């Protein structure tokens, strides 16, 4: 089932140095429960594409639709996970996971229990009362993912989610996070520099080239993962 539509998307940045055509004529659809990887050289527009889908910036031409809703500002149904985990060091792990619920005024006994359950099911049950500094980098990324998942977004955007981790941790956590996304049946778009990571985690990979950023190819890798 199709849940997202990216049509004729172009972005022209205006700045003191002049104009930069960052993305030109991008078209693709997003289907339910798929993980799409976005790879390409630095400066090809990967961050710009995620910013558009998250509604943080507006396209110069074209549109983004998620579940038939025009994304022209940040929406609650789009979840975002950053490069580094961005946990709050003064809040314990449970309170880090529930912060989005608090902001959306959805924190109650049920959602709190659900947060605890998710932490337990993903191996963090012993760390509910711990603080971020007491966890490894990989565990903190897992907490950050759970924090985003608990808000039940229609689509999850991951911007180089593992780039702050060392190589060995990166392999393990990439695996774990791929499993979590599949288990929770989430639709996700992930920007990465690492083509091997994209192949192992994603169903489809969009290869961007610069400049301006255009789609070179969309590769279906889901069959190779069965
Ligand atoms: P990537 O994430 O693939 O490295 P970006 O989306 O960050 O690429 O950038 C794409 C192009 O747009 C680059 O040439 C970059 O310098 C330019 N760019 C990105 N953001 C801005 C901005 N806010 N103002 C002007 N140019 C920008
Ligand atoms: P990434 O690590 O994803 O490649 P960058 O380091 O290219 O990100 O960019 C970091 C931030 O700076 C982004 O928010 C991007 O939009 C902005 N940016 C990138 N290039 C420019 C530019 N030429 N002028 C203004 N802002 C820019």
TrEMBL record:
One of its GO terms (molecular function) is ATP hydrolysis activity. It is an enzyme of class 3 (hydrolase). CDD domains: ABC_NrtD_SsuB_transporters. InterPro entries: AAA+_ATPase (IPR003593), ABC_transporter-like_ATP-bd (IPR003439), ABC_transporter-like_CS (IPR017871), ABC_transporter_ATP-bind (IPR050166), P-loop_NTPase (IPR027417). It holds the Pfam family ABC_tran. The keyword Chaperone does not apply. Its EC number is 3.6.3.-. The keyword Hydrolase applies. Residues 6-226 form the ABC transporter domain. Keywords: ATP-binding, Hydrolase, Nucleotide-binding, Transport. It comes from the Bacteria. This is Bicarbonate transport ATP-binding protein CmpD. It comes from Tissierella creatinophila DSM 6911.
